Amino acid sequence: MPGSDPNEDRAAFMSLDCVDPLMPAKSDEDMQNEVMRRIRDFNMTMVAFGDAEILHNWVEAAPPGRIIPGIGISNATEMTVDAFRDSLSNGFYKVMAEVAPQYQGISPSDPALDPYFAIAEEMNIPVGIHMGTGGNGMANLTQPKYRASLGDPFLLEDLLARHPKMKIWVQHSGYPMVEHMIALMGANAYVYVDISGMIWSYPLDDVHYYIQRMVRAGFGKRIMYGTDFMMWPRLFETSMGVIEHAQYLSEGQKRDILFNNAARFFRMDESQFEWPEDK
Fold first, then answer.
1. C-alpha 240: how far from its chain's center?
2. Roughly what angle, to the nearest 10 degrees, separates helices 28-41 and 52-61?
3. Are 131 and 90 in contact, with CB atoms under 8 Å apart?
4. DSSP 75
5. Rounded to an integer, what distance in angstroms lies between the CA atom of residue 229 and that of residue 35?
6. By three-state DSSP, how is residue 248 classified?
7. Quick one: which of 29, 42, 61, 100 is 20 to 30 A from 36 by CA?
């Protein structure tokens, strides 16, 4: 995102002025078809969250178990605690995600969110919390309450202390605060991260540095692949390529990031997956 002047028209956030622009899906139906094709072609299981009707359609269209539905909350005014419990109790939603209080100018350890986290802890539901980057210019362009400081992984410490049995993964790996992310994982043995969003939205040299730094610190078994593909289905291929072509990762480490770590975290049965090389 180029810099600009607040008193002038801002530069375009999205641009086609590149060698191979990634085009958005043309419709909800087109998006569903593109996602289902990639689930088949890449033998993929994915956590997805968003519009409830679309999510139900995806679950119905996908092979059993290949869409793991999530329900998120960013502040206590979005949904009552009772309604949240009911939503999880019906069995459709398998994860609590994306939890993104940072966009609302709220710390993830804000006591107002505690009852929701307590339900997830009680029901043994994995929790995905947005920490770190929200995209370039977020506070100026689209989310005026967004604060970069509220993406500091250290802000999770009080939350984790209050809910020691909660299973949590940090979405976007707390980018760009890698040292704090490493320290938090070192202090909390059950915290995982995903590399969604940051894997495609920042310079590749920095993305590789960030991933390699976490691996070198000993946390290669707790890093999970992710996309945050939003409206661009080809981001699956683009982001997978970042891991597949990372020369600092062994084949075993790549498989951990692309599959093994998530299978462990989300308690999936690995025996149900048929890998292409086994066909």
1. 14
2. 40
3. no
4. S
5. 10
6. coil
7. 100
SS3 per-residue string spanning 92-124: CCCEEEEECHHHHCCCCCCHHHHHHHHHHHHHC
Q: What mean pLDDT comes out for the span 149-173?
A: 97
31: helix, strand or coil? helix
When the pLDDT of each residue in the chain is averaged and rounded to a whole number, the result is 92
* Both structure tokens of 235: 């981001």
* Distance in angstroms (rounded) separating the CA atoms of residues 134 and 148: 8
What fold is seen in the domain 28-268?
A: TIM Barrel (3.20.20)
For the segment 81-135, what is each residue's pLDDT rounded down to a tens digit? 999 999 999 999 999 999 999 999 999 999 999 999 999 999 999 999 999 988 7
CA distances from 78 to 32, 104, 277 (A): 26, 11, 45
Closest C-alpha to 93, from 132, 131, 119, 61: 119
Residue 221 token pair: 């078994």
The domain ranges of the chain are 28-268
Distance of alpha carbon 91 from alpha carbon 69, whole angstroms? 10
Tokens found for residue 270: 């690995």
- Contact call for residues 98 and 70 (beta carbons, < 8 A): yes
